[in-house]
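Project standup — Tuesday

K.O.: blocked on the structure for the chain from last sprint. Re-posting the sequence here as requested.
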Amino acid sequence: MIMECQARGPQGAERSYFKILLIRFDQTAEIDSQCDMTPVRKIDPDRIVIDGQGGGTNITAALQLALGRLRPYMESLSYHPEHAEHPIPLILLFSDGAHNVGAGPQPVADEIKRLNLDGEPVVIAAAGVSVGGDVPDENTLRQIASPGCYVPITDAHALSAFISSVGSSGASRALDVASAIYRL
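H.V.: unblocked you, prediction finished:
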């Protein structure tokens, strides 16, 4: 996904229209220091490590971190001279959805989806990942996701297809993201 995004947009390392924010979460949530609203062309994809440690699932903490970065970013985009050229932020959330730490994630997800650029809201695409045969909490993940932007994931291949198809599609409007998910 990162390499595909690196190839899109205007030419030049300083003119990347894509920024990546990578948040890992279990009982707590943390932002990857290499991917903290970083222009995609400045990221070395070989240095990114994602490994599931298991334990708790604190979706709320992850969404709160995302909201904290998105608010000022959206504000800065609204004043950018080329703001119409920038894609709307897209959040890719993949989890078993079994939120079991802290307050429920729905209020924070709703707040994120109220952020907008020229009337187009930020989209949350959620993938319900089966872990060891467990069924994901589809109800929670569907509520978090923007309309039509939830997909069940049953294996590593399907997760890879979700990330590459949806994440690098350049789609950032709910209808376009839902279409990309439907094609999976």
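K.O.: great, moving the ticket to review. The mean pLDDT is 83. The first strand starts at residue 19 and ends at 25.
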